[in-house]
Write a structure and sequence with these properties.
heterodimer; A: 551 residues; mainly alpha; 60% helix; elongated; B: 1% strand; disordered N terminus; nucleus (chain B); Nucleolar protein 14 (chain B)
């Protein structure tokens, strides 16, 4: 395009260099230096697009019109991509070239050093490119991948965590983390064990930095912070997924961690050497050791969860992940307990999810948490029946209450609490509450005393404001609420009350009612169901003689 | 085998055979089985005792001579079965009834002697009364010679003459004794006298003769018996006669009764008499209560009179009862009425043409002549008579048409319609009867009107005017006025007239009177909304309601599927119309109130379709709800209408259940952003409360809404909240309207969303105070409705505290004066809640499973139980059992009989076969004997063995 602008058929200098480099890498090594410097100038140009200079090979035009600008941009991007591609290929080729790697001659050493320098300048150039705000998003993504790819080029035993850290920080704190980018990151880079390992490490450091305010985020920019946390969470999720695959890859197709591919070539070779030589454990790089990986993982999650500014949805999501996907992979899950105990103080779903985490800890990790049912009791409020996530919430509640080891007076308090909720609840909520009451009484037959109507009526001995279910005197009470629900306006509720009209102590005569019938119901569903029910009978009021006016 | 059988048969034959030897031997020497028997000394269990017919206990078991019984059976069979068997090949029988023929003990000679004796006796008998007249004919060849008939000797008559002339009843045989049988010719002075006497007594005379003839041998000869036909004819004639008599009597009775009835009716028409009778009755009752003794002393006549009076009054009351018409009949009748009125209206609107069509022949006077002349000119005088008839019919109907409205209101009882119609028709008949009654029945014709007209008529009339004609004239005169006016007058709708009638009727008339006569009576059901709105625009509410009514009546749903379909389509249109009217500002309350009953009636006619339409509306509302918006004005109106139309007592109503759900969700989830929202919410609570109160159910959402609303009350604060009452500006306080003027519910329905002024009104402190008050009112109402609910305290506790807080807040603010009623209301509420808490009853056995009752059997003991007796209480069942048992026994008996019959017949057949065999053998033996004789004879040399050869 640039050629046509110039009016000559001569191809641009950079293209010739690129062609030459690809044709014969060793002979045309100088072209590499040229390309890198050209790239650097290109990047400079792009990042300071406000004052473009005419390039030496006339790629840029003097014309300032916007469409030409756009053309320019595309052109520049194309060029950058091409150059990056060529240079990357060249460097990779060099690495595979045995003659250069192994020869000890001064020339080759010098060449190697020169190559190293070139690589460094190439990397810095790329970093500059993707860090710059002026770079278009597409180009940035390309360069980010280029940076990651360039990790391969690093020589030396150590993994070049610097680049990875740079990229992750960039991704987290910037605004360009898109679904696609995340997907590519997950599928193409995190599958490498070393990337995952160092990624976890850098994420842990990143979240600590965010917490202490050391991260390069504007201090008072709350939304940027939240954004960063969200990005970090997304990355963490992706990493959790892959790490989960690594660690408990019980399936036959999954290979054990030690045989995972790694990104950096040198490491792989070192491993080969280790196997061939001493064969000691020390030879295994740290990122291939399961314990180390777990430790990194635990650290990353802990430091992430300790962030005090987690937005609600992130917190909810992370808490949801905890019991099934995170806790099993952690080295010391008990460390979560203080985080969870703090979270339990939240209302609504967060509280119950935290409680779920605690539940898992209590059940399988020997945590002592005496206030568990008290917390649960206080979480049951009328508002929970109206929220969107009530299905999840009440399924969890059902899980917690399914144990028969709770004392009867506590269960009775729960029963009374549910009954009170049912009074205030919408029809589906009332049905749900009654299901709970029914199941609880079935699990704890001594609570059927609530249905027997002892005492002389009057004031209800049950104290609904008491926070401790054990102190609420629920066993002295009766379930007047159920009788009230018999005159509920919705016929299903009316009919459901009949369920209680049986001898509740004979447990073999009936089964529990499945919660799933009511847990997903909503007003709209009930309405649509009622409004589309087959028409059978439609009662019309008899006309009144002394009818008052309508309005 | 055969031999054995033969032997057996022989034995049997000996036993059963009727050969004299066998039986005689048996009789002479009875078998030991006959006289020897063992009497059982003890009753043996399981062995049935044979009871003799109710004899003493000692005779309970009697010996039954089995052999004798068997013998009896055999004999019976010999008499019946055997005879039949012997006759089995004969087609007929010959019965010999000659004297002594079947008596085997007589021989021929004795028989002959006996026969002769009998003959002689018979001849002697015949002549017992025959008088000896010298002739020695013993057999009385001229037996009736001395007898005469009609003065002639009987001998002179020949047979046919006798039969033709005389008719006597058959039993004349006895007549011989009554003394007329032997009247002789010479015993009377003159022949004539005798003759007359004989004519008089000819029956008797003839009877004598006949009696003689009866005992005679030749019976068929001079016997003048009546034939069957004659007898029958006579019978018929007689019965006819009596029937006639009876009928006549009945007729007389009836005319008498009719007369009585007429007079009675006349009496009863007089109100005074009725009143008097009623008074009398009351008095009598009083007397009966006070002095019973005195009444006893009343004469019987008086008592009878009273009784009759009472009966008569009772009868009077019952008269005029009519069978209740069915729905279809009512609908049809109403429709017909409307159609006829419509016809008439059309005729009247085209008044002049109608006039020309009138038949001039029936109009007298100059007017008639003029008409006739015009008719001759135009030659357009066809069909007049028919129309005139029709019109007269209409006229009769129009008088009854007044009560059309209340006739078909669902609320009205149908008797009224029937009664009034009947009275109408009776008026009509009186009208056509004559003039006198016409004037007296001014109630329906309008006195002043008819009088005025009559004067005019008199002036115009020439010659004798028939009453009929005058009547017609009056009608024609009506037509002279312009069409509409005349119609109104015809329908009896005159402003002044209404006062004369009963209150209800007057009301009805008033509404009808407002109707423009341009409204047709028969209106086709509109099929599009455009048609309908065209019909309705520009009418006042009463007219609109009337139009709806007419549409409904002229297309009754109960008549025909087509009408039902149309009514369904129309229902949708009507609902649309209603909700459109609801949208108008200001709200046409009056119009809507008048439309509602019609909608109600139509809903009752097509309930399922109404439900479908209502559901569609609810769906529409639901969509709005999902957008998070409060309902619009017309939605509120429609909801209110649904709550009015449908039955709240059906627990699972296709419309009300989803409607309540909708309202609940609105109340629970939709945020209150402005005063208008608040007002709408409160309106929804009002609707919910109405439903709640009527169905006795709880809608917790409405309580929650009230609680949340009242929780937001902040007095004297200037936050932006909905119920934050601004601090009062002292200066402007006086200018504001009085508090009572603000009605939240009315404001909702009157509001116009686009109106900025109204938006301000919803933001005013007055409005806010009024809505707080309304919320309080609703809360109290709800508490009142839910008193019986056991958890009412828990339900209302938050609301009560919110109310208390709100009342407290407002009362300390600068608006305390305006909101004076709030604090007492809150206190009342709290007191009521406390009261409910204390008065709550124990749950009791509400959730106790009801134990299934075990079936219990009480033992019952029979005092004197008899083993074989059937103690079944079910009479029918025991009867059936007995019959079945009888049937079985009969069957067994019949089988046994048949078996015995077979056995008997087999015996007989065996015996016969043996007999033939024996005979054959005998013959054979005989022949053989002969042959042997011959042989021996031959051997002995022809001496028949007489010669004894001496061979020795």
């Amino acid at each position: 395009m640039g050629a046509s602008d110039k009016g000559s058929a001569i191809e641009p200098r950079w293209e010739a260099a690129k062609r030459a480099l690809l044709q014969d890498p060793l002979k045309n090594a100088n072209e590499c230096a040229y390309l890198v410097s050209h790239l650097s100038s290109l990047v400079d140009e792009i990042s300071t697009r406000t004052k473009p200079r005419p390039d030496d090979d006339g790629a840029n035009k003097a014309s300032k019109s916007s469409d030409v600008d756009l053309e320019d941009e595309k052109d520049a991007r194309k060029r950058v991509v091409h150059i990056v591609h060529a240079v990357q290929k060249y460097f990779e080729h060099l690495q595979t070239e045995e003659s250069i790697r192994s020869s000890e001659s001064a020339a080759s050493r010098k060449f190697r050093e020169w190559t190293k320098e070139q690589i460094k300048s190439y990397q810095s150039c790329l970093r500059r490119c993707c860090a710059s705000r002026a770079t278009p998003a597409g180009l940035r993504a390309e360069t980010i991948f280029a940076v990651l790819d360039s990790i391969k080029l690093e020589a030396g035993k150590r993994f070049n965590a610097e680049s990875l850290d740079f990229v992750l920080r960039l991704v987290c704190c910037g605004d360009q983390l898109s679904g696609l980018l995340l997907e590519i990151l997950t599928e193409e880079y995190f599958v490498f064990a070393d990337v995952a390992y160092y990624g976890l490490k850098s994420l842990a450091r990143l979240s600590e930095d965010v917490k202490s305010g050391k991260a390069e985020i504007p201090e008072n920019d709350q939304s940027a912070r939240e954004n960063a946390v969200c990005n970090a969470f997304d990355l963490l999720c992706a990493l959790t997924k892959t790490v989960g695959g690594f660690l408990n890859g019980g399936e036959a197709s999954e290979m054990p961690l030690a045989e995972r591919p790694c990104l950096s070539r040198r490491v792989a070779e070192a491993e080969e050497a280790g196997v061939g030589g001493a064969g000691a454990n020390a030879a295994t790089p740290i990122f291939l050791q399961e314990k180390a990986m777990r430790g990194r993982f635990t650290q990353a999650w802990l430091s992430f969860l300790r962030l005090d500014c987690l937005p609600g949805n992130v917190l909810r999501k992370s808490l949801t992940m905890l019991p099934d996907r995170v806790i099993p992979l952690m080295t010391t899950p008990i460390l979560l307990s203080d985080i969870l105990t703090n979270a339990v103080g939240h209302k609504g779903l967060v509280g119950i999810l935290a409680l779920h985490g605690l539940f898992v800890l209590v059940v399988s990790h020997d945590l002592e948490y005496p206030n568990f049912y008290r917390q649960l009791y206080n979480m049951l409020t009328a508002g929970t029946l109206l929220t969107k996530y009530r299905a999840r919430f009440y399924r969890l509640v059902d899980t917690f209450l399914s144990t028969p080891l709770i004392p009867a007076y506590v269960v009775a308090a729960f029963v009374k609490r549910f009954a009170r909720l049912a009074l205030q609840a919408p029809p589906h909520g009332a049905l749900l509450c009654m299901t709970f009451i029914f199941n609880l009484i079935r699990r704890h037959p001594s609570c059927s005393i609530l249905l027997e109507g002892r005492g002389s009526g009057g004031t209800d001995p049950y104290d609904s404001l008491e926070a401790d279910p054990a102190q609420a005197r629920a066993l002295d009470s009766s379930l007047w609420e159920l009788e009230t629900l018999r005159s509920h306006y919705h016929h299903e509720v009316q009919r459901f009350v009949q369920v209680f009209k049986r001898d509740m102590t004979r447990r073999n005569k009936y089964t529990e009612i499945d919660l799933e019938k009511f847990v997903e119901r909503s007003y709209d569903e009930t309405f649509v169901q009622e409004n589309t029910k087959r028409l059978k009978l439609c009662g019309v009021r008899l006309p009144q003689k002394d009818r008052k006016t309508l309005f | 085998m055969a031999k054995k059988r033969q032997g057996q048969a022989k034995r049997l034959g000996r036993l059963y055979g009727n050969s004299g030897a066998g039986s005689s031997r048996k009789h002479t020497k009875p078998s030991p089985f006959e006289y020897k028997s063992a009497t059982p000394r003890f009753d043996v269990l399981g062995k049935t005792k044979r009871k003799s017919g109710g004899g003493a206990r000692g005779k309970a078991t009697t010996r039954v001579n089995v052999l004798a019984k068997r013998d009896e059976g055999v004999k019976r069979r010999e008499k019946s079965l055997l005879v039949e068997y012997n006759r089995r090949h004969t087609a007929n029988t010959f019965v010999d009834r000659r004297f002594g023929e079947d008596d085997e003990t007589l021989n021929e000679e004795d028989r002959a002697i006996l026969r002769f004796q009998r003959e002689r006796v018979r001849q002697a008998k015949r002549n017992r009364y025959a008088l000896d007249d010298g002739e020695d004919d013993e057999y009385g060849g001229r037996a009736g010679g001395g007898l005469t008939h009609g003065g002639r000797d009987l001998d002179d008559f020949d047979d046919s003459e006798l039969r033709g002339e005389l008719d006597s009843d058959g039993d004349g045989g006895a007549g011989g004794d009554d003394g007329f049988g032997f009247v002789q010719k010479g015993s009377y002075k003159t022949d004539k006298e005798f003759e007359s006497m004989m004519t008089e007594f000819q029956f008797g005379n003839d009877g004598g003769g006949d009696g003689e003839g009866g005992s005679d041998d030749e019976e068929g000869q001079g016997k003048p018996r009546k034939t069957k036909k004659e007898v029958m004819q006579e019978l018929i004639a007689k019965s006819k006669y009596y029937k006639g008599l009876r009928a006549k009597e009945k007729d007389e009775d009836e005319t008498l009764r009719n007369q009585l009835d007429d007079t009675f009716k006349e009496i009863m028409r007089d109100e005074e008499t009725v009143a008097k009778m009623a008074r009398l009755r009351r008095q009598r009752k009083l007397e009966g209560g006070v002095g019973h003794g005195r009444q006893d002393r009343k004469t019987e006549i008086e008592a009878g009179y009273d009784k009759i009076t009472e009966d008569l009054v009772f009868e009077f009351r019952q008269s005029g009862a009519q069978a209740q018409p069915t729905r279809e009949e009512m609908a049809r009748r109403a429709k017909q009425r409307l159609e006829e009125m419509e016809k008439e209206r059309l005729q009247i609107v085209e008044g002049k043409e109608e006039l020309e069509d009138e038949d001039p022949d029936k109009v007298g006077g100059f007017r008639g002549r003029r008409l006739r002349a015009r008719a001759a000119e135009e030659e357009g005088v066809t069909g007049g008579t028919f129309k005139e008839k029709l019109r007269r019919k209409n006229a009769s109907l129009e008088q009854t048409g007044d009560d059309l409205g209340d006739d078909f209101d669902l609320s009205d009882d149908e008797d009224a319609g029937g009664d009034s119609e009947q009275s109408g028709s009776s008026y009509y008949s009186e009208d056509s009867d004559g003039e006198g009654t016409e004037e007296s029945s001014g109630a329906d014709e309008g006195g002043e009107l008819s009088e005025g007209l009559e004067e005019e008529e008199e002036a115009e009339e020439e010659g004798a005017a028939e009453a009929d004609e005058r009547e017609k004239k009056r009608r024609r005169r009506d037509l002279n006025v312009t069409g509409e006016e005349a119609f109104l007058r015809r329908a009896g709708i005159q402003p002044g007239e209404g006062k004369q009638r009963g209150g209800e009727e007057a009301e009805e008339l008033a509404t009808t009177a407002q109707l423009d006569s341009s409204v047709p009576f028969v209106i086709e059901t509109p099929t599009t909304y455009a048609d309908f709105s065209e019909l309705m625009t520009g009418r006042d509410p009463a007219q609109q309601a009337e139009i709806l009514r007419r549409i409904r009546i002229s297309n009754p749903v109960s008549l025909g599927q087509q009408n039902r379909k149309r009514a369904q389509a129309f229902y949708g249109i009507l609902l649309q119309f209603f909700s459109n009217r609801c949208r108008e500002t200001p709200l046409p309350r009056e119009a809507l109130d008048l439309i509602v009953p019609e909608v109600h009636t139509l809903t009752a006619e097509v309930p399922l379709y109404a439900a479908t339409v209502a559901r569609a509306r609810l769906d529409q509302m639901h969509r709005r709800l999902l957008r998070g918006e409060w309902p619009t004005k017309q939605m509120l109106g429609t909801l209110e209408l649904f709550a009015e139309l449908f039955d709240p007592l059906q627990p699972r109503h296709p419309v009300l259940t989803p409607m309540t759900l909708l309202i609940s969700k609105w109340l629970l989830f939709t945020p209150v952003r402005s005063g208008l929202d608040l007002a709408k919410g409160l309106y929804l609570v009002k609707i919910a409360k109405k439903y709640t109160c009527q169905s006795g159910t709880v809608v917790p959402e409405s309580l929650r809404f009230l609680t949340s609303v009242l929780g937001g009350v902040r007095a004297d604060s200037s936050d932006g909240g909905v119920l934050c009452v601004q601090p009062r500006a002292k200066k402007r306080a006086k200018k504001r309207p009085a508090k009572g003027d603000v009605s939240v519910t009315k404001m909702v329905m009157e509001c116009d969303a686009a109106d900025a002024v109204q938006a301000e009104a919803f933001d005013s402190a007055e409005f806010k105070l009024a809505s707080i008050e309304l919320a309080f009112e609703l809360a109290e109402g709800l508490l009142g409705a839910h008193r019986k609910v056991p958890s009412a305290p828990e339900l209302f506790q938050p609301l009560g505290s919110a109310m208390a807080a709100a009342a407290e807040g407002v009362s300390t603010s600068s608006w305390a004066k305006e909101a004076g009623s709030l604090s007492p209301a809150a206190q009342r509420m709290e007191a009521a809640i406390l009261d409910l808490t204390l008065s709550r009853r124990s749950l009791g056995a509400t959730f106790k499973e009801q134990a299934k009752q075990v079936k219990q059997y009480n033992p019952r003991f029979e005092e004197d139980y008899v083993a074989g007796k059937d103690y079944d209480v079910d009479r029918d069942r025991s009867d059936r059992k007995r019959l079945r048992r009888d049937l079985k026994r009969e069957k067994r008996g019949a089988m046994r009989e048949l078996r015995k019959d077979n056995k008997f017949l087999a015996t007989v057949k065996n015996r016969e076969r043996d007999q033939t065999k024996e005979d054959l053998q005998k013959k054979y033996n005989k022949q053989f004997h002969f042959l042997e004789q011959q042989q021996s004879d031959m051997r002995s040399g022809g001496q028949k063995g007489m010669i004894k050869l001496r061979r020795k």
